[in-house]
Design brief:
155 residues; mainly alpha; 3 helical TM bundles of succinate and fumarate reductases; two-stranded antiparallel sheet; 4 helices; 2 strands; 3% strand; elongated
Length: 155
């Protein structure tokens, strides 16, 4: 009885269904895959430092209030930290949901609509979050009255 021979996996034969054409999206998917790994590693550091500063180093959850956020965002380092956390987490999550949509949405029209809603919501959240971080005013003037707290400069 003859034993069957198994070809080496790297023998160069590629199934026609998996052959790449010059216009294939393989490069984009590879970059998206790499982004997920790198952003995930960076997000672990960003999130644990964020949690430590907000919950462990201070007064815990009871210490987080308007004044805490105002004091934190008075420092540009924390603005950039929180902005990086927002952008990376939104892009990381959007890329993950995009992969899920590609895997489970069978019709092209369904896939198109789901991705449209995903991308629109991502842009809205990133833009609004960025505006909040950079336009946050801890010392607002409402109806001509300055609402001065102890951390605001005298009017």
């Amino acid at each position: 009885m003859a034993t069957p021979t198994i070809e080496s996996p790297r023998s160069g034969r590629v199934s026609p269904g998996y052959s790449r054409t010059p216009g294939s999206r393989g490069n984009f998917e590879m970059v998206a895959w790499l982004f997920m790994r790198l952003s995930g590693a960076i997000l672990v550091v960003l999130i644990f430092v964020h949690l430590y500063v907000n919950l462990v180093a201070g007064d815990g959850i009871s210490g987080i209030d308007f004044g805490f956020v105002a004091g934190k965002w008075a420092d540009p380092v924390w603005q950039i930290w929180d902005l990086t956390l927002l952008w990376l987490s939104m892009l990381h999550g959007t890329n993950g949901i995009r992969v899920i949509i590609n895997d489970y949405a069978e019709k092209n029209s369904t896939r198109m609509w789901l991705k449209g809603v995903l991308y629109t919501s991502t842009v809205v959240i990133v833009v609004l979050g960025t505006l909040v971080i950079f336009t946050f005013d801890p010392c607002p003037v409402i109806d001509g009255v300055a609402h001065v707290a102890d951390y605001c400069p005298a009017p």
